Amino acid sequence: MTMLQLLIMIAALAAGVMITRFVPFVLFPENRKVPKIVEYLGSVLPPAVIALLVVYCLRNVDFLHASFGLPEIAAILAICGLHAWKRNSLLSIAGGTILYMGLLHLIG
């Protein structure tokens, strides 16, 4: 890749990031009411995305062989428990990941 191509790619990426950051402020200024559909999507999309990520992460788990999905189930329960206890996403994700990796190492 030439230097010109690299600079064009960086400029295009920067423009794309800036557009996605600035467009919401242009479409929905403070003095204008946000449409109901946007408010609805803002309330339902985050849980939907999390549910899709959980399904995606569990898609290849074989509950009929070897560890029977125990590391995955234990990590999900740990994440839910830590989040219910402390309400700290970083702690929940880190704790679940550490538990999952430890169980994978022990169980195989």
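The record above closes out task 2.4. Task 2.5 opens with a second protein, given below.
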Amino acid sequence: MPVDILTAERSLNSYGVDLLVLVNLRNWIGAYLQATVYMMTLRGASSIKELAKTVAKESHLVDVEAI
């Protein structure tokens, strides 16, 4: 998929992200962003932007009060 058509306003589902990709994304988020995000949260996020906010709130690397 060309990068120029990607937008944070669309959901992961709208890009056809499957279960295997979601599992890998969840594992990556856990390992590198130190956040626990459930599969239903990944699947149910209305947009990538909303998912990013959720990950930031769950991450031990982000001071949510500073956002």
